[in-house]
Amino acid sequence: MALKMVKGSIDRMFDKNLQDLVRGIRNHKEDEAKYISQCIDEIKQELKQDNIAVKANAVCKLTYLQMLGYDISWAAFNIIEVMSASKFTFKRIGYLAASQCFHEGTDVIMLTTNQIRKDLSSPSQYDTGVALTGLSCFVTPDLARDLANDIMTLMSHTKPYIRKKAVLIMYKVFLKYPESLRPAFPRLKEKLEDPDPGVQSAAVNVICELARRNPKNYLSLAPLFFKLMTSSTNNWVLIKIIKLFGALTPLEPRLGKKLIEPLTNLIHSTSAMSLLYECVNTVIAVLISLSSGMPNHSASIQLCVQKLRILIEDSDQNLKYLGLLAMSKILRTHPKSVQAHKDLVLQCLDDKDESIRLRALDLLYGMVSKKNLMEIVKKLMTHVDKAEGTTYRDELLTKIIDICSQSNYQHITNFEWYISILVELTRLEGTRHGHLIAAQMLDVAIRVKAIRKFAVSQMSALLDSAHLVASSTQRNGICEVLYAAAWICGEFSEHLQEPHQTLEAMLRPKVTTLPGHIQAVYVQNVVKLYASILQQKEQAAETEAAQEVTQLMVERLPQFVQSADLEVQERASCILQLVKHIQKLQAKDVPVAEEVSALFAGELNPVAPKAQKKVPVPEGLDLDAWINEPLSDSESEDEKPKAIFHDEEQRQAKPRQPEADEEELARRREARKQEQANNPFYIKSSPSPQKRYQDAPGVEHIPVVQIDLSVPLKVPGLPMSDQYVKLEEERRHRQRLEKDKRKKKKKEKQARRHSALHTESDEDIAPAQQVDIVTEEMPENALPSDEDDKDPNDPYRALDIDLDKPLADSEKLPVQKHRNAETSKSPEKEDVPVIEKKSKKPKKKEKKHKEKGREKGRKKEKKEKKPSKHKKKKHRKEQEERSADRKKSKKKQPAGGGAAEPVENGSLDEEPLPPMSSYCLLAENSYIRMTYEVQGSLQEDSRVTVSIVLENQSSSFLKNMELNVLDSLNTKLARPEGSSVHDGVPVPFQLPPGISNEAQFVFTIQSIAMAQKLKGTLTFIAKNDEGSTHEKLDFKLHFSCTSYLITTPCYSDAFAKLLESGDLSMSSIKVDGISMSFQNLLAKICFHHHFSVVERVNSCASMYSRSIQGHHVCLLVKKGEKSVSVDGKCSDSTLLSNLLEEMRATLATC
Amino acid sequence: MQFMLLFSRQGKLRLQKWYVPLSDKEKKKITRELVQTVLARKPKMCSFLEWRDLKIVYKRYASLYFCCAIEDQDNELITLEIIHRYVELLDKYFGSVCELDIIFNFEKAYFILDEFLLGGEVQETSKKNVLKAIEQADLLQEKTENMYHSRSFIGCKKSILEY
């Protein structure tokens, strides 16, 4: 597009325009900062001028500087000035600057409220647009609250350009001011069916975003979105809708079932990768949410995996990456389908893109099995060697550990192999994950008893090999493994082949270069080692050797005593004293080994990390109760801040109990011992504390088989772990052969072996050594954890709002009112007492009342569940009676109703009324004519009964009539139980020629604030002499707001109280050109709009009605010369305004 | 979408649009971090990376990097399409756009972006409509601001789309 060249008319009198600035900056590369500070000074001068063009130019330059990272917050006020310029050129720049640099902390932002409001209502759509765009960037809670109503109005703007912007920005408003969501939601929902595709897509966007955060509130929109999904061809919209369904399905599995088909169709048909990817993702989400008992969905999974394979095989790195990403989601639920593509994943491990390799690594996690673990880890180990960056290598390392340790080392068949893998990993240079390896070593050595011997031998080798210690300063990460090594060698020293050598290794001077916490472990475990050596030597009666060891200790320990680390120092000096004491005893030939070993008697059990949390609170213990009563807040309030510390100190100091005498103390001690003895959680110093809680199947009961050491531990020339792979293969081979043999011999035995040894169904590999994983200790009756970690700071949580509840009056959006305009508009306002105070009490009472009524109604409903003809007739009769009553009472009224005396309650006039019927035509064709009437029922709120009179106008016999409507979200046809939303409701009678009958249908309504239209169809079979034909008749059911009202009498005092009590909102209409008499007018309102007259004085009457949802509607009807004004008050403003509009239509015909 | 950044091969920021409220300090920190991370990536690498709890989608057009941050649930491919669509819009508007166009007319680049995205969501999926809206808004603009044609004197002929 060639740009229109527009010649400038303003001479460049200002010093620099934006282009000059940019060019200047480019020309001052050396002293950019200086140049810019000079420019900022100029800008400051320009901002002081009155010329708005100069100011705008300055602000434009500032916006550019802001992007370069300069602070321009000082110019916020000038930006507002430019925003409020009347010319679009400047306004645009002002809003751009504001959107770039305003944020919630900008204090002048509240000054913009009125300007923005003005711009929003500007006649130029671009002014409005620019204001909306700007607002979307810097909306604050205050702005959102003040402008919500204005923006909501814009959602119904005539121009789609504004509508779509308003709809989108509403989302930002909801985030900042969640109270606006409910009032605005109905309109937002309407926009889903906006004629303009842009607006529609905006509404989909917003609702999708809302629903993703709090899906449960949007379940009721599913049918609508389903319709949109099947009809829309816009991929942008489709992606959003499909994403929305992904969020909804976990809550409604039935929805998922319905989705599978259209989604798989899309997967097959679409050429857009983004849509395909979204569909696959949602199908995965759906399948995850569906219970596994869905056999026919394996096809969908297969399809997804297939498509993903195509993505992964694509040369486009992006598709490859996403394919792997999606694959890992499938992996979680359908590992088998993914495992089939192991080749592909392993191939991706060699990809040149690191992020793809990492994704492939994620997948590997789920692909390992007992069978392939060694092979996969071997491959990873070669990658570790090749990896260039430390980040990727570290990632590999953690992945290897993750893969091996997952679900309690489920896939490891040979722990010797695993230990040697860990040992090999210690040779990695510069890794950060030393502690991870250390933790694994400790975990395995502690929990896999059978491996301890092997582990100890490996660890002592580690301690001996200097490479870790030597370079500890540079490679600080990896020396962590020494922590584990030292501890394992000390704790399980009985397995050491040459304890003396290890002891020497641990006492080397080099050790003092290690970090303090590792040295501390060294010191402590040196003693353990020493104790076991001592015992050994004494048993062998080698006193001299024992003394030598002691001497070694006495010589070497001082190096630790000098340590700068407190822990090391303290431990070392304690131990040094101990050893010196032992030395003295040894000199006297006293056997000491027993006593020294007693220091470390007992065994440590692994305790689950959550164990402490899960100890149930014993009965009668109230953790919230104060142990000591807190001090009363006697201090005056203003001193509080100071008092905090003071207070605390006192609290600690105060609860000193009077000292108990000796006897009391002894008694208590005894009691405590008793209690400890009975308390299973108390860790005692007795040699085998764990015995107590192993009555249940525990460690002791698992048979432990010794490691088969017939296999040589070292094969020269191969790294350790590789040799295990080889051995493992051989072993498996042997096993297989053996099994085959056995199979032939004894079948029963094999069956038993299966059940006893292994529960894994897919694997027949028996582990090399029978491994018992010591399960982590949990306290008895541990409580199931209920971790509901919802982030309280989540900004979207505030939007978790039930949208289906009818709007309460208090939820209106704040509307800015002009005081003058208001008074001039409704001068009658003074007539009606307006009480601002909220007093909700009467409302509440009423609610209770209603609830009771509802219960009764429900009971009744149960009794009369099957709508029989009887009931209908009765109903009809009642209705007739009622209207007859009304007529009667009308007649009873004394003549001259227009007189001054107030007429209370009831209907009034003396004049004969024109015949009125509330039945109106629904639809008709040559066969049938339908008229209908909508009536609210008091028994069940939110339900209306539609009575349809069907009249056969033909000579055919009509049968199999079925009525069906397309439910809207708000209004739904009550169908018999078990039928779906697409099923029709049969009409319970047939129609011979010329006959009419009435059928009733119940509809449930959610919100009654707006009138509704429902499309429907009546299908029937017309049978005559020539045969029978299927026929149908389409119709539109109109639910006016009036039809939700129920004529309810009200006494004048109650009426007055009502006006005083609630915070009713008010609205009024005026209709000119009325010729009808006031009485007839009132009668018409009574009849057509279900009101009753409360009081009437001259040409003024108050009327009352109630909605099926319990809204009170009060009217004040006044007749002027040729006009009627109606002032209404209602607890729901939307309902009221809609009612008045309907009334206007009625009155216009009078 | 949480934010969009445009920066050059040299790490100079050319455009930034934030759809989440953040302090200036935080913005600067994020920008610095992302520019570094993205520039460090090799050309053959895929366009996505995980960063903090967000996903970064970026694409290089000539010397410019377009970089968007999206949430975990968002679709990476559609974000790439958004980026591409934006580049196309710039290209149509400037008539084969180059980096200098965006530098010298950075406010126009913002206006186009604002017509295309609002609050981080796609506002208008039709290219034609976006350009129409911009053109008409430009017509409203006082006929003072002369479109600055960098091409005319710098001799930049190739659109960034063609790289």
Automatic annotation (TrEMBL), chain A:
**Chain intervals with Basic residues compositional bias:** 741-756, 838-876
Q: What does this protein do?
A: Part of the AP-3 complex, an adaptor-related complex which is not clathrin-associated. The complex is associated with the Golgi region as well as more peripheral structures. It facilitates the budding of vesicles from the Golgi membrane and may be directly involved in trafficking to lysosomes. Involved in process of CD8+ T-cell and NK cell degranulation. In concert with the BLOC-1 complex, AP-3 is required to target cargos into vesicles assembled at cell bodies for delivery into neurites and nerve terminals.
Biased composition regions of type Acidic residues, renumbered to the chain? 774-791
Q: Does the entry feature the keyword Coiled coil, yes or no?
A: yes
PANTHER family recorded for this chain? AP-3 COMPLEX SUBUNIT DELTA-1, DELTA ADAPTIN-RELATED
Which segments carry the region annotation Disordered?
646-695, 726-912
Record-annotated AP-3 complex subunit delta domain positions:
660-804
Q: Where in the cell is it found?
A: Cytoplasm; Golgi apparatus membrane
Q: Where are the transmembrane segments?
A: none
Taxonomic source organism: Equus caballus
* Protein name in UniProt: AP-3 complex subunit delta-1
Cellular component terms (Gene Ontology): AP-3 adaptor complex; cytoplasmic vesicle membrane; endosome; Golgi membrane
**Which residue ranges have biased composition labelled Basic and acidic residues?**
646-675, 726-740, 792-837, 877-886
Q: Which GO terms describe its biological process?
A: intracellular protein transport; lysosomal transport; vesicle-mediated transport
Q: What are the alphabetically sorted keywords of the record?
A: Acetylation, Coiled coil, Cytoplasm, Golgi apparatus, Membrane, Phosphoprotein, Protein transport, Repeat, Transport
Gene3D superfamilies attached to this UniProt entry: Leucine-rich Repeat Variant (1.25.10.10), Longin domain (3.30.450.50)
Its family? Belongs to the adaptor complexes large subunit family.
Automatic annotation (TrEMBL), chain B:
Subunit: Adaptor protein complex 1 (AP-1) is a heterotetramer composed of two large adaptins (gamma-type subunit AP1G1 and beta-type subunit AP1B1), a medium adaptin (mu-type subunit AP1M1 or AP1M2) and a small adaptin (sigma-type subunit AP1S1 or AP1S2 or AP1S3). Binds to MUC1.
Taking every annotated instance into account, which residue ranges of this chain make up the domain AP complex mu/sigma subunit?
1-140
- Annotated Gene Ontology cellular component terms: AP-1 adaptor complex; clathrin-coated pit
Query: What GO terms describe the biological role, i.e. biological process, of this protein?
Result: intracellular protein transport
Question: Which InterPro entries does the UniProt entry name for this protein?
Answer: AP1_sigma (IPR044733), AP_complex_ssu (IPR016635), AP_mu_sigma_su (IPR022775), Clathrin_sm-chain_CS (IPR000804), Longin-like_dom_sf (IPR011012)
Protein family per UniProt = Belongs to the adaptor complexes small subunit family.
Membrane topology, record value: Peripheral membrane protein
Question: Where does it live in the cell?
Answer: Cytoplasmic vesicle membrane; Golgi apparatus; Membrane, Clathrin-coated pit
Query: What keywords appear on the UniProt entry?
Result: Coated pit, Cytoplasmic vesicle, Golgi apparatus, Membrane, Protein transport, Transport
The record ties this protein, via SUPFAM superfamilies, to:
SNARE-like
Superkingdom is: Eukaryota
Summarizing the function annotation, the protein's role is: Subunit of clathrin-associated adaptor protein complex 1 that plays a role in protein sorting in the late-Golgi/trans-Golgi network (TGN) and/or endosomes. The AP complexes mediate both the recruitment of clathrin to membranes and the recognition of sorting signals within the cytosolic tails of transmembrane cargo molecules.
What are the protein's GO molecular function terms?
clathrin adaptor activity
The protein in question is named AP complex subunit sigma
